[in-house]
Design goal:
Layout (H helix, E strand, L loop, with lengths): L7 H4 L4 H10 L1 H22 L7 H22 L3
Helix pairs in contact: 2-3, 3-4
Length: 80
């Protein structure tokens, strides 16, 4: 199964400068972004290898990544 890499700066290019600024100035944002990246890598690994691609654990990882993405986006929007 082919999977797309999820990267916030690719998904939200208009916010790339803010992403980098918050990453270096806000420890909570940096931690969430690192967790988001780790979740993305784990999901991509599972999907690339077709290991339990329909499992509930994969769906739980995707939901967790989405929750991180939502919080990161809210933080980015609150800096406007």
């Amino acid at each position: 199964m082919h999977t797309e890499h999820q990267d916030l700066t690719v998904e939200f290019p208009e916010l790339a400068e803010r992403i980098h600024a918050l990453q270096s100035s806000n420890a909570h944002f940096a931690k969430l972004l690192a967790e988001f990246d780790a979740l993305s890598a784990e999901i991509e690994h599972i999907e690339r290898n077709d290991a339990a691609s329909g499992s509930s654990s994969l769906e739980a990882l995707k939901k967790q990544r989405l929750a991180h993405k939502d919080e990161l986006y809210r933080m980015l929007q609150s800096t406007n």
